[in-house]
Write a structure and sequence with these properties.
Order of helices and strands: HHHHEEHH
Radius of gyration: 18 Å
Shape: globular
Low-confidence stretches: none
Largest sheet: 2 strands, antiparallel
Number of strands: 2
Number of helices: 6
Structural class: mainly alpha
Strand content: 5-15%
């Protein structure tokens, strides 16, 4: 099998990652409008709902690649009960992390349940649409490739290239 030119493969992966994010936000846009939430606020809310073991602002920054100031701004707004600026404020609650008083866990409130349910439905439909046309063998290969790439990304982040 012929190896791809790494610079071409990297450029295509970068382009696809940008297009992926654009398409993902386009799918979630109707829910953002209806819930009166910016796309990044919905991203944070769904990340916390889908990853209860990664529920600190630092986790959001690390795993979603967001800057701390942006995460802090959106978390403040999502947690502010009765805030006039977003109709959906009060969707997150801050709780102390047992055993580490420096950390604060972010927990979705009951008020967020419908938005989370609908967001997960849209995420599922997005994933199905992305994988349309791939057979089982291709999907298994894709998952193995993603696992290898995830490990390589972690290694690059720790050690460089």
């Amino acid at each position: 099998m012929q190896m791809l030119d790494p610079s071409i493969a990297a450029a295509r992966m970068y382009s696809n990652s940008s297009r992926f994010i654009e398409a993902y936000h386009a799918v979630l846009q109707p829910l953002c409008r209806e819930a009166e939430l910016p796309a990044l606020a919905l991203d944070i809310l769904l990340f916390i709902a889908n990853n209860p073991d990664k529920s600190t602002a630092r986790d959001v920054c690390q795993f979603r690649g967001m800057k701390p100031g942006i995460v802090s701004f959106h978390v403040d707004r999502l947690a502010a009960a009765g805030a006039a600026s977003w109709a959906a404020a009060g969707l997150l609650e801050r709780r102390p992390v047992p055993g580490d008083r420096r950390k604060t866990q972010l927990v979705c409130t009951e008020a967020a349940a419908d938005i989370i349910r609908r967001g997960r439905e849209l995420q599922g439909r997005f994933a199905e649409a992305l994988l349309t046309g791939l057979d089982r063998e291709s999907l298994e290969t894709f998952h193995r490739c993603l696992a290898a790439i995830d490990g390589n990304i972690d290694n690059i982040r720790r050690n460089g290239v």
